[in-house]
Amino acid sequence: MYPGSFDYQRPQTLQEAVRLLGTSQGDARILAGGMSLIPLLKSRLVSIPTLIDIGRIDELRKIGNTEKSVTIGSMVTDHEIENSRIIGDRFPLIREVSRWIGDPQVRNRGTMGGSLCHADPSGDWGACFIALRGKAHVEGPNGSREIDSDSFFTGPFSTSVDISEILTAIEFHDIDGMVGSAYEKIERKAGDFATVGVAVQISIDEKGNCTYAGIGLTSVSASPVRAAKAEKELYGKVLTMRNIESAALAASHECDPTDDPLRGSADFKRYLVNVCAKRALIRAVKEAGGVL
Fold this sequence. Notes:
Blueprint: E1 7-9, H1 14-22, E2 28-31, H2 37-42, E3 50-53, E4 63-65, E5 69-73, H3 78-82, H4 85-90, H5 92-98, H6 104-109, H7 112-118, H8 124-131, E6 135-140, E7 143-148, H9 149-152, E8 153-155, E9 158-159, E10 166-173, E11 178-187, E12 194-204, E13 210-218, E14 225-226, H10 228-232, H11 241-254, H12 266-288
Parallel strand pairs: 1-3, 2-3
Antiparallel strand pairs: 4-5, 5-10, 6-7, 6-10, 8-9, 11-12, 12-13, 13-14
């Protein structure tokens, strides 16, 4: 099918994009990579009077690298993230997650920023964003602000980014100590959305005590969710197999999956969360140098 008619705007600067969005009276939407929005338009599941294409705004295509953090512009593609040495060296979890997204065609156009704003409950980036406690930088008519990962997602396909605001970058701060991470995903076929996805980031000190635990779940609730109770099973403790099993079980109770004729029952998905969380935690602990 073909989409309905719409007005197309392609601003050259962030200020121009914010102005266009602010004067649209809620009738405009931002076009980033288009991997989710274009199919919706073509199938006529949505009708949008105005598209604002931010693909030509150079300042949104940069990867920032400071002493304490890495910032990924909202128009940096998944392919660029996957192949960035800066990102891969400092945040291996981001690189690992990027390789699970769609296929090369999708990764060549898709962006982390676009995916987070689309807020698909089955999206891969949401779990990673939560596990690393990322911060979203947004710009609007009232200036700029930051949104932390815990308050970013508000429901299925819904975020706390206002309709008059543009997500400009995602920032990840370094985690102290000996770090390890892993992403475990169950999918029906290569490139599919997750049946279950679990992103894990941990850090341990020289005595083996957990000093940071981040666990993000995807495809098992109305939006990506932080397994906070599971994290508490780990924080401040030596990461033994028993503690890992307790945390994985806690994570399986923190999600709220639904029965799905394509991907299985809610009970099956909870079981997979337990399995994937345990696998991811074991890999992350070993990567950090822990002994199980």
